[in-house]
Amino acid sequence: MRNYDFAPLYRSTVGFDRLATILDRALSTDVGTNTYPPYNIEKSGEDSYRISVAVAGFSEDELSVEMRDGQLVISAKKAENPDQETLQYLHRGIASRAFEKRFQMADHVRPVGAETKDGLLHIDLVREVPEALKPRTIEIASVGTIEAKPVAKTKKISQEA
């Protein structure tokens, strides 16, 4: 694996600390260790997205979806079941281990709803850019409409030696 040094990025930018931290975190995590549970990220419109996570075997009470520090955190923990101890599995292929999945959200992206259907947890996201940050047209005045103001004359101060 290659190592990247982001020190020049930190030195030559102002206000991009979060971006550098995200890149640092993304490159430092091992790709193979964070594959459970499987998930999809879909773009469903111009400013809308959906994250679908496979949560077979978990009830809605055992799932948690939160926004923390610009991250969407999805976690699940199986509730203790006393009947589970008496079962003897011949084959156990359905994973029901606890997990925590984190997704870094871009600015102005927020979750608007979540639902479970057919063993999948669907989280709908929307990007809402504030009016102050949206592009706007600035009217350019023509030369004839700008009025020049006279410059005030200043007195010369004579220096006598």
Describe it for me?
The protein has helices spanning 7-12, 17-28; strands at residues 39-43, 48-54, 63-68, 71-76, 99-104, 109-117, 120-127. Helix content is 11%, strand content 29%. It has two domains: 1-35, no CATH class; 36-129, Immunoglobulin-like (Sandwich), CATH 2.60.40.790. The mean pLDDT is 79. The strands form two sheets. A four-stranded antiparallel β-sheet has the order 1-2-7-6, with no helix packed on it. It has 161 residues and is mainly β. The protein is elongated.
Structural features:
single chain, 161 residues, mainly beta, Immunoglobulin-like, 2 domains, 4-stranded antiparallel beta sheet, 3-stranded antiparallel beta sheet, 29% strand
Structure summary:
The protein has 161 residues and is mostly beta strands. 11% of the residues lie in helices and 29% in strands.
Query: What is the CATH top level name of the largest domain?
Result: Mainly Beta
In spatial order, strands of the major sheet run: 1-2-7-6
Beta-strand percentage?
A: 25-35%
The CATH topology of the largest domain, please? Immunoglobulin-like
Radius of gyration: 28 Å
